[in-house]
Amino acid sequence: MISKFDIINASAGSGKTFALTKRILVKILKSKDENYFKRILALTFTNKAAAEMKSRVLKNLKDFSESKITDDKTEMFEQVKKELGFSGEKISILAKERLNLLLHNYSFFQIETLDGFNHHIIRSFYKELNLEPDFRVVIEAEDILEESVSRIFENIENDEKISNLIKAFSIKKISEGKSWDVEFDLKEFAKSVLKENEIGDVEQIEKGSIKDFKLLKESIEAKTNLLNAELEDIIINIDKNILNQETEIVFSRNSFPKFINSVKNNSFTWSSMKSILTLFEKNTVINKSCLKKNPDQLNVFVANLFELFLELKERLIKTKVLDSFLYSLTPSILLKIIKSNSEDIQKENNELFISKFNKLINKEVANQPTPYIYEKLGVKFNDYLIDEFQDTSDLQWKNLIPLISHSIESFQENEPQGSLFLVGDPKQSVYRWRGADPKIFVSLLLKEKSPFSVQKNIANLPVNFRSRSEIINFNNSLFKYASGLLTSSSHKKIFLQGSVQKQNNLLEGHVSITFINKDFKKGQQLEGVLKETLFQIENCLFRGFEKSEIAVLVRDNKQSSLISEWLIEKNVSVLSQDSLSINNSKKIELLINLIKLKVNNSNQEARAVIIDNFAALVKPKDMFVFYKKNLKNEFENFLENLKIFRLYKAFEMSFLESVDFFIKELRIDLSNTDPYVLFFREIIFEQVSQKKNNEKEFLSFWQKSNLKIKIPSGSSKNAIQVLTIHKAKGLEFPVVIYPFVDSVTHKNSGKRNWLPVFEENFSKNILIPFNENFREYSDSFKKKFDSIHSNEELDNLNLLYVALTRAVDELHLISEYPRSKSINSHNQIIRAFLENSAEWREDCNKFTWGKPLIKEIVKKNDPVSDAKAYETKYFHPSPESNFLNDKIIFGNVFHEFMSNIQFENDYINEKNQLKLSRSVNKSIKDEVIKLSKTVIEHPDLKEYFSTNNSVYCEQEIFTESNKIIKPDRLVFLSSNRVVIMDYKTGEKNKKDEKQILKYQKTLINMGYELEASILVYVEKSIDIVKLL
To answer: Which domain holds residue 616?
Structure first.
């Protein structure tokens, strides 16, 4: 019997998608209601995961419906049969019936993302939420936040209070040696508007007035003045204690007096404070020979001095924290205005942040009676399945609880028993930064309080079906040991429970760990990692692995670009969806700073970068003096001193000419094959020829857009995949290479947290920079810091777990040499594990488990050379296709191009990739690019390329007669309204109308409401024919 509430703890490779698919199949086939699939809601976190689950359900129903299934049984069929207790013949008949119904009512088959479900709810309640019915969803909200901040400065002359606040804030920044520009600070604070876990604090700020903040500021200043007075008294006491000693005090390295002087000058550092504390704890604050002269008296003196130091330390921490609060007050006050501006902009543009979905539902919908919510949705769900539950946020879970509770806790006559099926793995929770709260899943797994009255059934999926035995054993041992390094007892339990995975029938496997020579300097270590990565790739290829079977996993896009650029330079094909960020190329950085210097010869920031690039050629005796002199030197002398005076003439050339001159003279791309440089030149050409931008305007564009510009690396089937660990989650690869292995657990900079100014009277929370030195400020600070510290440990160990559990056959780790063992970084965790298992040796830099696999090498003729180092996603015609005329080629390329355009913002990337194609001639490229843009921007079609819609390009659909149709474009405007679009690149023909009418009939039979059927004729111009 299926229980009402099941929780599945599914470690990596244990078959969670199999378990979810089986559950859905059992529910669909068991019910006497042939339309029961409409009562099932399965939620996951990505469109890809939702599509995969749908595909698996459909494929299994199709397999079950075939008569041969009773003879050729699959594992899924056997398990479903066992759970249902039906005969094979009965399952086959039911599967055929249910599949046919499902396909013709496909819109009611609800396997979707949580965001998609929330979107559905908000669309259903748009009147109650005071929204327009056709509101657009905003996923990338940075531009709106930037405009929200800009509006403050646009209206500054009309609001004296705000003007005074900004002026005072600028003056404070200048007094602290910082830039007077406050816009950056406001943009950083504005990010809180988008973060679900900060909504409560932002709302609290909204309730306050400028007067409230002024009173708070006065309270902080009064407390700071009191602390400063106490500090002065303590310092006076310290000085008196030292002067009153009969014996002359000799401090170790004079450290303590230096520290006191730095406190008097307000220039002390946290590290110096720590050093003094260590000296006191080791009883070495004064010289040993001095201590021996009068030990009894001097030990009392040191004890008294230590007490004074601790009092001093306490006051210094409090003054620094209060100073941080003072600094953050103005941005906090203005956050209220920024949020108000962002809401105005959304209203003006008829838009809604996707980040607001959960809060809107929680505030306005979740408390409505459940039957009423179901009535508005148009469907009542009985069974809930949630995949990747560890990535659920607090609000997402709270919003689902009332619906789930109504299903599994209430009993209604003639209604089937409801159920909840949660699947996930807290060890794979890597999205806390996006709002995920793994604590929810951890508490349920550890049998803590449940939000439901029904009993929960917890099960572990014990077998790893993905990896070979050596990899499973290695990971079991590593993470069992690493669990002991965690601070939190609940986090320890989660990793201990997950470190006992059983093996499948895949034996052997290979694991290697390589540490780069410890005597290498930093730059040499980096080069060593890159060389070893290439070596491992070549070694795997030599042993018979395909390039497409090898994945290189990295921590972030910067590392991804380093690896990708290195491999491209070595003529290795790379497939990297996001990593080839043009911003990460050192060559492009140099070119950008040369352009900056062209705009302003005195630009010191640009000069500094250029000095970095060319100082090695000069080899100055004193680098500091060389920098200082050339940052302010005459321009001609600056170029002369760096031995690049030959560039002088470029500064008199036109924009395009100067860039080409820089590239040529500095030998940046001699072979004219560097994708970064080629793409950069194309960007400049477009900005100059189409936008008519000069250098200054280009730099303005670059500042805003450079982080978003990626080099298209294509989708070649035979290329090394380079991707971040986050992107690799849920995937598997025969060979995984993890270079760097340096992900840091605790970041010392960039942390901001909402914390109370004072402990008493429920003080306001203010967003301030937060570090470990602030921990001692108050009990709430200590609690917050310890919680963050513990969560950072879990998050970083989870990243390591995800990286190391993607491999099927081989796993290779390549790391800079770890100097110590701890939980503070991935390579230090690895060293600690090796030491604990008695494997570690100082003189050994390579550790292996199992043997490398030798695969059968099949020689293949690769029609595409690796010489250019990047691949294009466009088709490569075979020789026999040369007879095709230009019209047919144009039609093929146009359809291929448009099949990759889901939304209007896909156009630029597809255009750039088409431009890089080596198999399509330029005239056809230009025509496709021009006409596709006309289609996307056409006033009658533009709304159908909006991100508010769900879009399927060239989606295969089964008809009632079991034939397959494939419309060019299906646009779902809401859950049940659909637009059909078909592109035609030939002359008008009656067959076209018949074809789209067939599509129309099929979709209506599937339960969709037809909004429009559109034929788009594309030749030298665009002609649109609407059939509905």
So the answer is: 584-702
